[in-house]
Write a structure and sequence with these properties.
single chain; 291 residues; alpha/beta; 2 domains; five-stranded antiparallel beta sheet; 9 helices; binds adenosine-5'-triphosphate
Length: 291
C-alpha cells in the first residue's frame, strides 16, 4: 500500500493532464483518474514478419511497430477513467485485452507511455502473490512482511497476526515455509492480510478465485465489508458470479480500449450475452434476499 499519491505521465502528456486537473478535486478525496493513458510494450527480441500495419487478433493487445521498426504491443490505448469514493468497478474482456495492465498502471507499477494517470489514496494491490512474500520463511512471518509491504508497521501486524492466522485456517502450516504452500493456501494468506488492513483503493485480480468454495464464502463477507470500508475497488475477473458479488459497475476492455462502461448486468450482457446477464441478475437478487 503506498502512502503517497502517485501521478505518472507519458513523455508526451498533454498540458491539461494530471496537474492542471487538480483544481477539480479536493486534496483529501480518494480518486483514480487516467487521461488518455496508453501503455506500450516494445518487444526487442520478437521474431516477426515486417509490421507495415497494426495487427489485430481476437485475444491480446494490438501489435504494431515503433518508428524505428521495433515490434510493439499496445496493451492499453487512450484510457480515460475517473473513479471516486464508493466506486466498485469490475473489468471484463478477452485474454490479453489489457485488464492486468490497467491494474498495474493504477497500482503505479507501470507508467503510461502516453497520457497520464493520477491515483489519490493508499493503494493495496492484491495480485502478483509473489510480491511482498518470501518463499523461504514461514507463513506467520509472511503475514508480517506482506502487511509491511502494504504500508503497516511490524507492531501493527503483530497485533493482527492471531486474527489473520485464524481466518486463514492454515493451522500448523503457518509454521512452514511459504514454498510448501499451494496457490490457494497463498491466496488465503494474502486475503487474510489485505482484509485486516484498511486500504483506500483496493485492486484485485482473479487470482483470488484460487481458493475453495467454502473459504470463498467466508472470505466474500470479509471482502464485501472491506470493499464498503475502502473507497474504491477495481477488480478484474472472468467470473461473473464473483464480479456481481463485489462490483456494481463494469468496464469492458477490448484490445486495450474501453469498449463499454456501465452497470454490471448491462456490460456483462453486452460482452457475453443474455445468459451471462441473467446469471449476474440472479446473484444480485440472491444477495438482496440475503440482506
Ligand atoms: N510485460 C509485457 N511485455 C510484453 N507484452 C505484454 C506484457 N504484459 C502484457 N503484455 C501484452 O499486453 C496485452 C494485454 O495483456 P494483459 O495481461 O493486460 O491482458 P489481460 O486482459 O489481463 O488478460 P487475461 O485475461 O488473459 O489475464 C497482451 O497483448 C499481452 O501480450
Amino acid at each position: 500500500m503506498t502512502d503517497d499519491d502517485h501521478t505518472t505521465e507519458g513523455a508526451d502528456a498533454p498540458a491539461h493532464s494530471a496537474h492542471s486537473r487538480n483544481t477539480i478535486v479536493t486534496a483529501s478525496a480518494v480518486r483514480v483518474d487516467t487521461w488518455d493513458a496508453s501503455v506500450d510494450f516494445p518487444i526487442f527480441d520478437a521474431k516477426t514478419r515486417s509490421f507495415k500495419k497494426s495487427v489485430l487478433g481476437r485475444a491480446g493487445g494490438v501489435i504494431g511497430a515503433s518508428d524505428s521498426g521495433v515490434p510493439m504491443v499496445e496493451a492499453l490505448s487512450n484510457i480515460d477513467l475517473h473513479l471516486e469514493h464508493g466506486d466498485r468497478i469490475g473489468l471484463v474482456g478477452h485474454n490479453g485485452a489489457g485488464k492486468s495492465t490497467l491494474l498495474r498502471l493504477l497500482s503505479g507499477i507501470y507508467e503510461p507511455t502516453r497520457g497520464a494517470c493520477r491515483v489519490r489514496g493508499r493503494v493495496a494491490p492484491v495480485f502478483d502473490l509473489g510480491v511482498g512474500m518470501d518463499p523461504e520463511i514461514s507463513g506467520f512471518e509472511n503475514i508480517i512482511i506482506r502487511g509491511m509491504f502494504l504500508g503497516m508497521t511490524r507492531k501493527e501486524m503483530l497485533a493482527k497476526s492471531d486474527d489473520i492466522a485464524e481466518f486463514t485456517e492454515l493451522g500448523q502450516h503457518l509454521e512452514m515455509p511459504l514454498r510448501t504452500y499451494s496457490t490457494g493456501m497463498r491466496v488465503r494468506l494474502a486475503l487474510g492480510v489485505v482484509t485486516s488492513i484498511d486500504p483506500e483503493i483496493l485492486i484485485l485480480d482473479e487470482g483470488i478465485g484460487a481458493v475453495d468454495a467454502d473459504f470463498m464464502r467466508k472470505a466474500r463477507k470479509r471482502l464485501q465489508a472491506l470493499v464498503e470500508r475502502s473507497g474504491i475497488l477495481v477488480f478484474a475477473s472472468h467470473s461473473n458470479e464473483f464480479l456481481a458479488q463485489l462490483c456494481d459497475r463494469a468496464l469492458w476492455i477490448d484490445k486495450g480500449r474501453i469498449k463499454m462502461e456501465g452497470g454490471i448486468e448491462d456490460v456483462v450482457g453486452a460482452y457475453e450475452g443474455p445468459a451471462a446477464a441473467a446469471q449476474v441478475r440472479e446473484v444480485l437478487n440472491r444477495m438482496e434476499a440475503d440482506e
